[in-house]
UniProtKB/TrEMBL annotation:
It comes from the Bacteria. This is Uncharacterized protein.
Length: 41
């Protein structure tokens, strides 16, 4: 019981970390796009 709960928490933590990475990468890409657009003008 405790083991299954622990595994479930580990999976949730991993997903949360992956979502944060994805989110950070999205922001990075958008920032770079905005920077490129600004440099063109």
């Amino acid at each position: 019981m405790v083991r299954a709960f622990h595994d479930e928490m580990s999976i949730l933590e991993e997903e949360a970390v992956n979502m944060q990475k994805q989110f950070a990468e999205d922001i990075l890409v958008k920032t770079q796009l905005v920077t490129k657009i600004v440099i063109k003008f």
